[in-house]
Amino acid sequence: MSEEVIKPVYSIDKVRLKTRLAKDVVQFKMRKYESDPRVEYWEGYKITEYRHNWRFKLGVDETVYIGCQHNSEPPVELRTGFVIEYNPNKVEKDNCVLDELLMLFTKTEPIVQKLDVAVDFYKVNINWVTLFKGSKRKITTLDYGSDDKTYYIGEVGQEGRVKVYNKAKERSKKSYPVPFSDWTRYEITLKPDVITSNIQDYKIDIEIPNITYIQPHKIKDLNSTDRILLKAIKAGLAELAELPRRKKEKLKPFIQEECELFIKKCLLQETVVDFITEISDKYFFLDGKQYESAHYSKRYYNIKT
């Protein structure tokens, strides 16, 4: 195969939808899972939690989370908050359990509360990646040696938080197939907080952290010493100006070429819109009929979990 980097692949790595449902409907629908060994149930009592929680274990890493009756809600209401969270990259589209759970949203207008968008860079070693964290963002690095690294940009729970890590290393530790020995993944958390019928108008209105990298075919002629020096400069452990003139002239083009930012905001938006449109067409649109809005009480639009 060519040493050229493969075009980045965008996908939804996690989605969280919320709505409001009649309590008796939820109780009736969830009763069928009471004795299902794949389903774990627990109660939460913190003000930021849901009282009733279910985790559906559909495989080794395949899970679907359901939360019902947020603890900030008045318990006397006939309708209750209801959320679903799952990873479309791990749960098959045609999974019958996922289908049943998403069908609970059929007569509602769900809010797209949160998504994680993944961007996979195949044939890109994380050691050749440079991060641009943007303004007022904190960066945390977990370095286990060699190319086993993970970077976190931003605060936990905030929109725009980014994780950049060695996806090949993560999969190999779990004995999963690894198509490329060099595979870097970028994941960003977005919080659209829009109803599904308005998703076509969704725009990312925040500054996003970005990355660039040196493509492998461009450094194939460098010797091992030059590669180590280049990595040290990229990691901030050395300055180009500190090198001897000949080394400086040799490595300077590689530093200067790192100008293209590879995370495209327009593609992040398109990935979100395409995914939500697809599941809306299948589960929420009711053959073109108008929604029966589950959000009869506007104050519940602002519940944040």
Overview of this protein structure:
The chain is an alpha+beta fold and about 300 residues long. The chain folds into 2 domains: about 10-215 and about 260-290, no CATH class; about 215-255, no CATH class. Helices cover about 20% and strands about 30% of the residues. The chain contains 6 helices and 13 strands. Strands 1, 2, 3, 4, 5, 6, 8, 9, 10, 11 and 12 form an 11-stranded antiparallel sheet that branches. It is elongated, with a radius of gyration of 23 Å. Mean pLDDT is about 85; it is low at about 285-305.
Structural features:
305 residues; alpha+beta; 2 domains; eleven-stranded antiparallel sheet; two-stranded antiparallel sheet; 6 helices; 22% helix; 29% strand; elongated; disordered C terminus
